[in-house]
C-alpha cells in the first residue's frame, strides 16, 4: 500500500488570504491567527498576500483571482456571517460557501473555507480565539497540509 505523506512544513510556500471586513471585530482575529500560524509553520511573511473585501459575498470572486493568477500555492477565505445581524443570512452563507466550494473542487490549488457561520457575535468571537481557540490557526494549518498533499501529484 502507498500513502501520500502529510506534512505541516510550510517552508517556501506562497499563500493568499482573502478576508471580509464585515464583522471585522471577528475577521481581524481570524486573520491574525491565520498569519501567526502560517509563520509558525515556516511560511515567510513576505510570501503571505492579504486582500480585504467588503463582505463574505465578495470572497469567491477575489479567491478566483488569486487562483487564476497562478502565483499562490493555496488560498484561504476568511469571513464571519452572523445570523443575528442580517435577514439575508442564508443568501450570503449559500453564495459565499458555495462559491468557495466550487473553486476548491476544481483542484487547481487548495482553497480553504474559513467562513464562520454563527447565530451570535459571541459565538463567532469564541471561535476566533476568545474561548474555543482561533479557527484562523486551524485553517492556516489546513492550507499548508493540503499544499503538501497537492505537491505529491506534481512529481
Ligand atoms: N457579509 C458578511 O461577511 N457577514 C455578514 O454577516 C453579512 N451580513 O450580515 O449581511 C454580510 N453581508 C454583506 C455581503 O457579504 C456583501 O458584502 C454585500 O451584500 C455586497 O455584495
Notable characteristics:
binds 5-nitro-6-ribityl-amino-2,4(1H,3H)-pyrimidinedione, alpha/beta, 4 strands
Structure description:
- The protein has 155 residues and is of the alpha/beta class.
- Helices cover 45% and strands 19% of the residues.
- It has five helices and four strands, in the order βαβαβαβαα.
- The two termini are 18 Å apart.
- Bound molecules: 5-nitro-6-ribityl-amino-2,4(1H,3H)-pyrimidinedione.
- 5-nitro-6-ribityl-amino-2,4(1H,3H)-pyrimidinedione binds at residues 20, 22-23, 54-58, 79-82, 85-86, 88, 92.
Q: How much strand?
A: 15-25%
| Termini Cα gap | 18 Å
**What is the tally of beta strands?**
4
The percent of residues in helical segments reads: 40-55%
Q: Count every helix, treating DSSP H or I runs of 4 or more residues as helices.
A: 5
What is the structural class? alpha/beta
- What ranges have pLDDT less than 50 throughout 5 or more consecutive residues? none
- Neighbour order of strands in the largest sheet: 2-1-3-4
Instruction: Let me know the average pLDDT.
Output: 96
The value of Rg in angstroms is: 15 Å
SSE sequence, one letter per element: EHEHEHEHH
What's the main sheet like? 4 strands, parallel
Which ligands does the model contain, each kind named once? 5-nitro-6-ribityl-amino-2,4(1H,3H)-pyrimidinedione
* Envelope shape: globular
Amino acid at each position: 500500500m502507498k500513502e501520500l505523506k502529510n506534512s505541516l512544513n510550510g517552508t517556501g510556500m506562497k499563500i493568499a488570504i482573502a478576508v471580509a471586513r464585515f464583522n471585522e471585530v471577528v475577521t481581524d482575529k481570524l486573520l491574525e491567527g491565520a498569519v501567526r500560524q502560517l509563520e509558525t509553520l515556516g511560511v515567510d511573511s513576505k510570501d503571505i498576500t492579504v486582500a480585504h473585501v467588503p463582505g463574505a459575498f465578495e470572497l469567491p470572486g477575489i479567491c478566483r483571482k488569486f487562483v487564476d493568477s497562478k502565483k499562490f500555492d493555496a488560498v484561504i477565505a476568511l469571513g464571519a456571517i452572523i445570523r443575528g445581524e442580517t435577514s439575508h443570512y442564508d443568501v450570503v452563507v449559500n453564495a459565499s460557501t458555495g462559491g468557495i466550494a466550487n473553486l476548491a473542487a476544481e483542484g487547481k490549488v487548495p482553497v480553504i473555507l474559513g467562513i464562520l457561520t454563527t447565530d451570535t457575535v459571541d459565538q463567532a468571537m469564541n471561535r476566533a480565539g476568545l474561548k474555543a481557540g482561533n479557527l484562523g490557526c486551524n485553517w492556516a494549518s489546513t492550507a499548508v497540509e493540503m499544499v503538501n498533499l497537492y505537491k505529491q501529484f506534481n512529481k
